[in-house]
Design brief:
alpha+beta, Phosphorylase Kinase, domain 1, Transferase(Phosphotransferase), domain 1, 2 domains, five-stranded antiparallel beta sheet, 9 strands
Length: 337
């Protein structure tokens, strides 16, 4: 992303947002509200209606402007196609709307910035789940994976080995993001995690998954459970869409995970040996998160939100978490988790 495009993306104006929405053939009222998103720029836009709206959300559109340089057009379209497949299979997701020419992706006139429009939906994030809600979620994930396994991504990224973790480690080392006081220790810990986990990935089936299915990406509207934000959709083991929902190691998290998996198995087989991948996947997420922040540091929003990033304290806390993962992986027998 060039400096000029970066500046434009960081400072999208309401007029640009309104013009983008009206390219879909609707008329905007002029009311625009920025929504919470670090990676992309997302806005809620009110549109005019000729009659009584069908629902309280019908007069709104959500405009998502993709960060330049993050995804190729082909990768974004694969995301859109997967979401549309899921919607066609009665999976409650939020599919992108089509523009008059039938496409789901448009480019701004001035710069190589691509955007899509989505309907606004209702729902709330829940921090606690009942057993029946966990069961419902498990069945929903299994149905998502049945569709996910029916085709393959050609362009989206993969977690198919420890190379995924090594790639982000290499970025942190080559970019000098790590201070000298922790770089050596950090590298040794992550490399050991990668080495130990490498054989665990061999032979594990891969499929299209949500990729970032934590509680913040699950909306509940009364009894309806809806999955949102497929920005990180990828090819990965099925367990990737399960561990983030209950990421803890305590008895309650293990119990919740078991409820989800048992319900999942009523629709699709789940290999419980792959539960041992949770710890390396946790480590890869930690390393990738730091690499992501460092790559985005020129975005004014990032220093404001991640005030401690790059400090000795930050990296020490990262090392404590990674050391704990390494210890668990090297002490707990393979296949037991």
């Amino acid at each position: 992303m060039t400096d000029e495009v970066s500046k434009f993306f960081f400072n999208l104006t309401p007029d640009r947002v309104l013009d983008a929405v009206e390219a879909s053939g609707v008329r905007a009222t002029g009311r625009v509200m920025a929504l919470n998103s670090m990676e992309n720029r997302v806005y809620q836009v009110e549109i005019e209606s000729d009659g009584e709206p069908e629902s309280r959300f019908a007069n709104f559109r959500v405009a998502k402007f993709y960060r330049p340089g993050r995804w190729s057009v082909e990768e974004i379209l694969e995301e859109h196609e997967f979401i549309s497949e899921l919607a066609g299979g009665d999976i409650p997701v939020v599919a992108p709307l089509k523009f008059p020419d039938g496409s789901t992706l448009k480019k701004l006139k001035e710069y190589e910035i691509w955007y899509a429009l989505f309907p606004r939906v209702g729902g709330r994030i829940r921090d606690e789940y009942s057993e029946s809600e966990l069961e419902r979620l498990g069945r929903l994930i299994a149905r998502l994976h049945l569709i996910g396994a029916s085709k393959r991504f050609k362009k989206r990224w993969k977690i198919e080995s420890s190379e995924y973790g090594r790639r982000h480690l290499e970025y942190l080392l080559s970019s000098k993001a790590l201070p000298d006081s922790v770089a050596g220790h950090y590298q040794r810990v992550v490399e050991q995690i990668c080495t130990v986990s490498e054989p665990w990935f061999k032979g594990v089936p891969l499929l299209r998954v949500h990729g970032d299915l934590h509680l913040g990406n699950i909306l509940w509207d009364n009894e309806l459970c809806r999955l949102v934000d497929f920005d990180d959709t990828m090819t990965a083991p099925a367990v990737q869409d399960i561990w983030l929902i209950c990421p803890g190691r305590d008895a309650e998290a293990v119990k919740s995970r078991e409820i989800i998996i048992s319900a999942y198995e009523s629709f699709r087989e789940f290999n419980r040996e792959t539960l041992r991948l949770i710890e390396p996947l946790r480590a890869f997420r930690i390393v990738r998160f730091s690499a992501w922040i460092h790559r985005r540091w020129q975005d004014p929003a990032f220093p404001r939100v991640f005030e401690e990033f790059g400090t000795e304290k930050y990296w020490r806390e990262q090392l404590i978490a990674l050391d704990e993962i390494r210890e668990i992986m090297t002490v707990v027998p393979a296949g037991v988790y």
